[in-house]
């Protein structure tokens, strides 16, 4: 019986799950608007975020990856590679852009924080090997933020 317990402890140790976080930052403008609605409805639902001339935010994105530590490297993921993925897929693509006009993914999609987090997840997911799990946390302001895990 004791041999079984030792094996369990050994297996649990070698299957430790950990999360690694990396932050990024970009500045972007957007306008929240539903084309099928009249101006009054858009203003009522989106308030200042419906400004015809757009408005901007200093976004902060946190990318969380979760999985098993590689026993050889002692790492879940190379953070230098994660930094590069975030920079190429989100920061370089979205920084100082008008999300409604300059970013193809939002030509027909309202650039809410929720939709931006989902699109960021889709772009980054392509570069994170499975079975590593991915979560995006997008801060639109210091107080307003969303989280998306692709589930």
Q: Could you name the key traits of this structure?
A:
151 residues, alpha+beta, Tetrahydropterin Synthase, Chain A, five-stranded mixed sheet, 5 helices, 5 strands, disordered N terminus
Question: How is this fold's topology laid out?
Answer:
Blueprint: H1 2-14, E1 17-30, H2 39-46, E2 55-68, H3 79-94, E3 97-98, H4 99-102, H5 113-125, E4 133-139, E5 145-148
Parallel strand pairs: 1-3
Antiparallel strand pairs: 1-2, 2-4, 4-5
The CATH superfamily turns out to be: 6-pyruvoyl tetrahydropterin synthase/QueD
Total number of β-strand segments? 5
Number of domains: 1
Question: Which secondary-structure class do the elements indicate?
Answer: alpha+beta
Question: How would a crystallographer describe the biggest sheet?
Answer: 5 strands, mixed
Helical content (DSSP H or I, runs of 4+): 25-40%
Outline type:
elongated
The name of the CATH architecture is: 2-Layer Sandwich
Can you walk through the features of this model?
With 151 residues, the protein is α+β, with helices and mostly antiparallel strands. It has a single domain (17-30, 56-148), classed as 6-pyruvoyl tetrahydropterin synthase/QueD (Tetrahydropterin Synthase, Chain A). The protein has helices at residues 2-14, 39-46, 79-94, 99-102, 113-125, and strands spanning 17-30, 55-68, 97-98, 133-139, 145-148. Strands 3-1-2-4-5 form a five-stranded mixed sheet. The radius of gyration is 20 Å and the shape is elongated. Residues 1-10 have low confidence and may be disordered.
């Amino acid at each position: 019986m004791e041999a079984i317990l030792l094996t369990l402890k050994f297996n649990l140790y070698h299957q430790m799950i950990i999360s690694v976080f990396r932050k990024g930052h970009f500045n972007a403008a957007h306008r929240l608007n539903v084309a099928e609605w009249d101006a009054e409805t858009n203003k009522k639902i989106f308030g200042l975020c419906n400004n015809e001339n757009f408005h901007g935010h200093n976004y902060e994105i946190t990318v969380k990856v979760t999985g098993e530590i590689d026993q050889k490297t002692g790492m879940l993921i190379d953070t230098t590679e994660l930094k590069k993925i975030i920079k190429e897929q989100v920061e370089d693509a979205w920084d100082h852009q008008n999300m409604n006009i300059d970013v193809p993914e939002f030509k027909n999609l309202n650039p809410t924080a929720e939709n931006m987090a989902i699109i960021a997840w889709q772009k980054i997911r392509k570069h994170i090997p499975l079975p590593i799990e991915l979560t995006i946390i997008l801060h639109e302001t210091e107080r307003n933020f969303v989280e998306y895990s692709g589930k």
